Amino acid sequence: MRRPAVAGRFYPASPEALLLELKRCFEGLPTREDASIKGVVCPHAGYMYSGRTAAHAYAVLPSVDTYVIMCPNHTGMGSGVALSTDTWSTPLGTVDVDREFVSALPRDIIDLDESAHIYEHALEVQLPFLQYRFGDGFKIVPICLGMQDKETAAEVGAEIQEAMERTGRRVVVIASSDFSHYVPVEMASRNDRYVIDALLRADVDEFYRRLAESGASVCGYGAIASMLYAVQPESGELLDYSTSGDSTGDYVAVVGYAAIAMR
Predict the structure, then answer these.
(1) What Pfam families does this protein map onto (predicted)?
(2) Which of 10, 91, 96, 236 could form a disulfide with 46 if both were Cys (CB 3.0 to 4.6 A apart)?
(3) What H or E segment, with its residue span, contains residue 69?
């Protein structure tokens, strides 16, 4: 059992308080299932900072069999491409891994490794959003990326695509990532929108080029690229963009958050 690592810090630890916080995140957002969505980009900060932006993605997410969730490795622990097969626990209950999908992965580059996930927050914080929207009617495939170069992302995306074809599963791929880190809000907004523009055109090569050119500190860039390679979208839509300054009032050193739907 993979138990919560950041409950009580990134989001409330009690079910009642967590549900109230999620209700706040979704307040005023119409929920619908957009079946055209193949993948999304969601932030992974504390809910008080990025929960509202994340809710913009989850409000339109379609209900599917399996959500492949990919995140960057912030801890440095474990394999460079680490897949967890444990059942995951949150204050709202447990979430099972889709073991049939896991078995269908070629696993040429993806390793079975729990250690990368033990203390990692970036994937865990996505689960209560899924539980809030869809109860227990889904499974996940959790992948933590320590290696985020374009070649690795292409291999990971190809393996996910192959497992999708082998299983015939209805799948949405969730890429967990924040954008600029600890820069003035003007710089964050400029750099983030520059790299996001490449994502809206589903152009992986241009995405990596703009990351290098701008220096935008997008922590989950490999997760985003892997998602693009896996689902092969035609275009994207920016659903919401915000910064930590919107919550704290500090615009001198902000973190950028984006919710993006890929179709």
Answers:
(1) Memo
(2) 10
(3) strand 66-72
Give me the pLDDT at residue 145, please.
Answer: 99
Query: What letter represents residue 94's amino acid?
Result: T
Domain positions in the chain? 15-262
Tell me whether residue 163 is exposed, middle or buried, using C-beta atoms within 10 angstroms of its C-beta: 0 to 12, 13 to 18, 19 or more: buried
Q: Residues with Cβ < 8 Å from 99, sequence gap 6 or more?
A: 85
pLDDT of the residue at 35: 98
pLDDT at residue 210, as a whole number: 99
Q: Phi and psi at residue 200, in whole multiples of 5°?
A: -65, -20
CB atoms near residue 31 (< 10 Å): 12
Return d(Cα 257, Cα 121) in angstroms, integer: 16
User: Which segments in the chain show pLDDT lower than 70?
Assistant: none
Residue length of the chain: 263
Strands 181-183 and 254-262: antiparallel
Are the CB atoms for 230 and 252 separated by under 8 Å?
no
- Of 138, 128, 157, the C-alpha closest to 67 is 138
Backbone phi, psi, residue 126, to 5°: -75, -25
Amino acid at 59: A
- pLDDT computed for residue 251 by the predictor: 98
pTM score, whole prediction: 0.98
* Token pair for 80: 């460079």
The rounded distance, in Å, linking the Cα atoms of 216 and 210 is: 8
Give residue 108's pLDDT: 96
pLDDT score recorded for residue 81: 99
Output the pLDDT for position 156.
Answer: 99
Question: Which is nearest to 223 in space by CA: 236, 207, 241, 209?
Answer: 207
